[in-house]
Amino acid sequence: MQEHPIRWETSGTSRIPFALYTQQDSHKKELERFFYKAHWSYVGLDAEIPNPGDFKRTVIGERSVIMTRSQDGQIHVVENVCAHRGMQFCRERHGNKKELVCPYHQWSYALDGKLQGVPFRRGVRQDGKVNGGMPADFDPKDHGLKQLKVATRGGVVFASFDHDVESLEDFMGPTILKYFDRLFNGRKLVVLGYNRQRIPGNWKLMQENIKDPYHPGLLHTWFVTFGLWRADNKSELRMDEHHRHAAMISTRGTAGQATGDKAQVTQVSSFKESMQLHDPSFLDIVPEPWWQLGEQMPTAVMMTLFPSVIFQQQVNSVSTRHIQPDGHGAFDFVWTHFGFEDDTPEMTQRRLRQSNLFGPAGFVSADDGEVIEFSQQAFESKPEHRMLVELGGRDVGETDHMVTETLIRGMYEYWRKVMED
Ligand code: FES
Ligand SMILES: [Fe+2]
């Protein structure tokens, strides 16, 4: 079937063609340009592989990779493609191993990806004669696993297939780096648990969802009713110079259910006055010293690092959310809930309790999975159409309010620059 061509209605990005989410060819090009070249992608937390020999299998774009810790404590990221005949040999999600062995013909690799063993390399002796074996000029040094460039900061591990990629710090840019360092300020991280979900929608829709500060106060009954995220919260939107990454910073008004100016929320249909929490400890929010940034004490900072990850602080719940595309119409979304080594047991419990807002069945996040799925359904049925992203104008810029879709326009400005070149 002929794919519908991508046609932008204007020179800007306030009208986004549905075909941007339905084309398989364009999807392949996005993988090449965003995930495999010139960008850093999230792979995990160093706390996931604390000991030598520990590994975690994950993906960058649609390529399978393994994050390992070698005996000397170094973190490596190698591609999960055997250098022999290409098998994706690592099947476990996590584990500990002295070496990586492909089961097919048992080529074995050191944890940094170097090839160290090839069965029958020198042939098999039989009746005084050597049969087979690799050619004399076979050099294991030329046949290791593909090694990626690795960068870690504050306990978070990133990798890139592109060894010429700029530094991680330059990639983030100073504005985003400031918010990154606020969350990952050097304290040791502790993994509290994972959520995994498959969302039948294009991966960019998840970036858009977190660059959209205007939906949480409307779509999410839970947020509106219990006052965690509302359009009248004090807030600001920040971007890197390329407008690909963003931070939404929000400070919650006074505590409790729908307090503050009631008129602001009671007209929102998702506000449910009769709704009460069975367990009020759910809203037992305790401000933490690290929230402080200059004069501010944000209760929520949502960071989108393009293309692969979202870093979340929603009051005491903190997590990374890894975007793992699978074709143009689906992605896996993997949440890693974490805490800090110096947390009290009460704080750990609090973080875990509040993490019920998130993940596939989260009181808040379940809504996002659905709207993404239903958006994708519309795009597939009407690929010649386009969406409208004009709240707050048609241009791109930082703001000190949430009533705008400027971050989405910014991301697609970057998308057009990279994809249309
Ligand atoms: S494919 Fe891996 S050892 Fe042959
Ligand atoms: Fe949402």
List keywords for this structure.
alpha+beta; seven-stranded antiparallel β-sheet; Rieske Iron-sulfur Protein; four-stranded antiparallel β-sheet; 22% helix; 2 domains; single chain; 21 strands; 421 residues; Naphthalene 1,2-dioxygenase Alpha Subunit, Chain A, domain 1
Structure overview:
It is a single chain. With 421 residues, the chain is of the alpha+beta class. It has two domains: 41-150, Rieske [2Fe-2S] iron-sulphur domain (Rieske Iron-sulfur Protein, 3-layer Sandwich); 173-419, Naphthalene 1,2-dioxygenase Alpha Subunit, Chain A, domain 1 (Alpha-Beta Complex). The protein contains nine helices and 21 strands. A seven-stranded antiparallel sheet has the order 14-20-19-18-17-16-15, with helices on both faces. It has a four-stranded antiparallel sheet with strand order 5-4-3-6, with no helix packed on it. The model has no long low-confidence stretch (mean pLDDT 94). Residues 82, 84-85, 87, 89, 102, 104-105, 107 line the site of FE2/S2 (inorganic) cluster (FES).
